[in-house]
Amino acid sequence: MRVLSGIQPSGKLHLGNYFAMMKRMIDYQENNELFAFIVNYHALTSVFDAEKLREGTFDAVCDFLALGLDPDKSTFWVQSDVPEVTELTWLLSNVTGMGLLERAHSYKDKMAKGIPANLGLFSYPVLMAADILAFGGERVPVGKDQKQHLEIARDIAERFNTAYGETFVLPDADIAEDLATIPGIDGQKMSKSYGNTIEIFTDEKTLKKKVMSIKTDTTPVDEPKPIEGNALFELYSLFLNEKEKEELKERFITPGLKYGEVKKELAGVVWDYFAPYREKREMYANDKAEVARILQKGANKASEAASYYVELARKNVGLDY
Ligand code: TRP
Predict the structure, then answer these.
(1) Which of 9, 48, 133, 284 is most solvent-facing, going by the fewest CB within 10 Å?
(2) Confidence of residue 109 (pLDDT cuts 50, 70, 90)
(3) Residue 189 annotated as catalytic
(4) DSSP conformation letters of 161-194
């Protein structure tokens, strides 16, 4: 199975990114053909500071490598190193109805918040469709917020195939429903734009501070604590297996549990969980030449994969005069 997904380099990656996408991708690489990339073209729709984009891209690359993405087993690259996707975006644009894009939540939400829209933001889903279709991605692990984008990608592929003959594979979204929404420290969905994230790679003091500030309810100590919608319980559960999760549940429903103590414990769990990755990350961050070599190799592999679908699409629309 060809598994493919991309991640934005628009800020420090956090536990939401890790559990909804990165970890699942890394797990997939054992038995699948994995394509993973850092979407810096997409980030251009919201990052207007070149140095920030450079830094964010390099950081995201180091994060992914440190967390276990194996560039020998998988194809791992930076989106802009395979510029063919932008050409494919143009071909796809002409089978994409305005209405389809006008209904996209990401665009509608930004408009509603009064964020001025540009053409890049509006056509974001078309570039995303190109990202997937250029490589024949079959299964696309993403967070729940990307569900509609995947539907749009599939829709565009269908329209193209109908108009020009069988060209693209129809991709399926792969959303882990059980962890569909990972709460941030305020209980809302963890998201950079809400400022409620717990970063994967941060110093111990900051991590502790973040975990200690997870919003909890005011249930008195000597009463059972709720599980549903309890951000502390949900975040802690991400680090546990089924059995451990049951034990944690038991502790929550047993009177006497102190949220403060559980938070302290969780800070330690998170810190220890990422300890081996932290060392690896340090190594990559200090070896830019090695990172560049890895990315070059990834871009070559990705280009080769893209050439099949992009060539076919060029031919099918009649660019091969
Ligand atoms: N839009 C995705 C996000 O913000 C990132 C993305 C870009 C992506 N291209 C993709 C995800 C292709 C999956 C496949 O999370």
Answers:
(1) 48
(2) confident
(3) yes
(4) HHHHSS-SPPPEEE--GGGS--B-TTSSBP-GGG
- In this chain, the answer to whether the domains covering 2-181+288-317 and 202-282 adopt an identical fold is no
Per-residue model confidence as pLDDT tens digits over 132-153: 999 999 999 998 889 999 999 9
Does 142 contact ligand 1 (Cβ within 6 A)? Answer: yes
CA distance 188 to 268: 23
Q: Regarding beta strands 33-38 and 75-78, do their DSSP bridges make them parallel or antiparallel, or are they unpaired? A: parallel
Q: Whose CA is nearest to atom 6 of ligand 1?
A: 6
Question: 233's torsion region: left (phi>0), alpha (psi -120 to 50) or beta?
Answer: alpha
Amino acid at position 158, single letter: E
Question: What is the rounded (10 degree) CA torsion for 283, 41, 77, 150?
Answer: 120
Angle, vertex CA 107, rays to CA 102 and CA 111, nearest 5: 100
190 near 15, Cβ under 8 Å? yes
Residue 106 has pLDDT above 90, yes or no: no
Q: Is 6 in the pocket of ligand 1 (CB under 6 A)?
A: yes
Q: How far is the CA of 149 from the centre of ligand 1 (A)?
A: 8
pLDDT, tens digit, 9 for 90 and up, residues 171-220: 999 998 776 689 999 999 999 889 999 999 999 999 999 999 999 999 99
* Cα 136 off chain centre by: 19
Confidence (pTM): 0.94
Tell which CATH classification among 3.30.450.20, 1.10.760.10, 3.40.50.620, 3.30.1490.100 matches the domain 2-181+288-317: 3.40.50.620
Domain 202-282 indexed as CATH 1.10.240.10: yes
Exposed, middle or buried by CB within 10 Å (0-12, 13-18, 19+), for 186? Answer: middle
**3-class DSSP assignment, residue 48:** coil
Clarify whether 280 is annotated catalytic: no
| 68 residue type, one letter | G
